Amino acid sequence: MAPSFHSLNRRIFLALALSPFILGCGESGSGTQTLQSKTNSIGMHFLVVAPGKFQMGSKRGDQRERPVHEVTISNGYGLGAMEVTEAQYTQVMGKSPSLKNPDAAINSLSWSQANEFCQRLSNLPAEKTAGRIYRLPTEAEWEFACRAGTTSVFSFGDDQTKVGEHAWYTRNSTQEAHPPGKKIPNPWGFFDMHGNAWEWCQNFVYDYNDAPAIDPVGPAKGDKHVLRGGGWFHREQDCRSSTRFSEDPNSPTKYMGGLRVAFPIN
Q: How do 33-34 and 22-23 pair as beta strands?
């Protein structure tokens, strides 16, 4: 029998409470990091990412991932340790476009639906009191957290034969999304950064050659928003830390995105 939403939350909480949240040396420029955890009013768990620098992009991917360039994240932010589940989406929105498995990562949203979830979550009374304003992460924030101080192809190294230990993808997913938190997390404690649900980012797609070096947020207007991380229907190559996708923000299909929620740390 599948675990209930509340029992899953309890297990996630215990896992996060016992995890050291230490690791992440190298390109972050801040040495070993200890990521603090926070839990919001509906039981969503977040890790606090400190400012830092990293090498964004890859020489091994397609042209959209080039050039490799240094990016500075100048402000800390909270980021979901897990992808948003169908049950969490329904709890906030009152409905779900999927609801095949309440414990699974939701993965059938348009960008507009994912963005609306963040807005409605921000408007919950307890979240207003806490002063948390939720949003989707920028693409740079997402890759910074995914890499967790690494410069390898994946956050766990370059060996793609190990993808199945860290991700739900086309070879092991049975062609569906799974409950988050079942695979090995990345070095900072984030689960499912590779595979499972495609994750929407805040920004429109942009050319790295035109991007500022500090806190890039993309253009003010565009036709397509960015998705990151690959999904349950993707190959190993598509689940790399640097892989970029982009889609029309208003066209949900079963191959559209899920989300991981962020909020600024003042």
A: antiparallel
- CATH code (residue 100): 3.90.1580.10
- 224-244, pLDDT tens digit by residue? 999 999 999 999 999 999 999
Q: Which among 256, 260, 111, 127 has a CA at the least distance from the CA of 188? A: 260
The domain of 218 spans 21-264
Residue 231 within any structural domain of the chain: yes
Write down the pLDDT at residue 23. 34
> Cα dihedral sign for 149, 151, 152, 154?
positive
Beta strand pairing call for 77-80 and 52-56: unpaired
Domains in the chain, number? 1
Query: Could you tell me if 24 and 33 are in contact, meaning their C-beta atoms sit under 8 angstroms apart?
Result: yes
Question: Residue 148 and residue 13: Cα distance in Å, rounded?
Answer: 21
